[in-house]
Amino acid sequence: MAKHNETGILGEQLAVDYLSKNGYHILERNWRFSHLEIDIIALKDNCLVFVEVKTRSVDYLVEPELTLSKKQQGFIIRAANAYIGSHEYDMEARFDIISIVIHPEGHELKHIDEAFYPYAK
Q1: DSSP annotation string for 24-40
Q2: Which of 42, 75, 77, 87 is least enclosed by beta carbons within 10 angstroms?
Q3: Terminal CA-to-CA distance of the chain, rounded, Å?
Q4: DSSP string, 9-21
Q5: Residue 91 neighbours by CB under 8 Å, 6+ apart
Q6: Phi and psi dihedrals of 3, rounded to 5?
Q7: 3-class secondary-structure state, position 55
Q8: Which residues are bridge partners to 107 per DSSP?
């Protein structure tokens, strides 16, 4: 397996562990709609939370959360709409980012609530 794939898998597991410890109920991991994917779908306080996990090793110059483009946000929003429609949820929803930097001593995790919002085209 490629190093970046291993880093991504580790990051998603760290994110799930963090969310679970902080009162989130994990509903889905790597949920797919067509070619689109949502890393984590969770529920907390009657709010559906769609989480994008961005993981990098320490040698990157840019913080992981800054690498999520508007196009990628649009893909996540489309997938979230499909998920909500297929499960008939009627509750608030939000889009979070969990940013993880892996380094030799461990990792740093940053949880950004409401990191982006659905936008009109």
Answers
A1: -EEEEEEEEETTEEEEE
A2: 87
A3: 38
A4: HHHHHHHHHHHHH
A5: 46, 47, 48
A6: -55, -40
A7: strand
A8: 102
Query: What angle is formed at CA 116 by the lines to CA 18 and CA 54, rounded to 5 degrees?
Result: 45
Distance of alpha carbon 19 from alpha carbon 21, whole angstroms: 5
Give the tens place of pLDDT for each residue, 94-108.
999 999 999 889 999
Closest CA to 118 of 63, 79, 64: 79
Dump pLDDT digits (tens) for 6-53: 778 889 999 999 999 999 999 999 999 999 999 999 999 999 999 999
Q: Break the chain into its structural domains and give their ranges.
A: 3-116
Point out which residues pair with 97 in neighbouring strands: 52, 112
What is the structure's pLDDT at 5?
Answer: 64
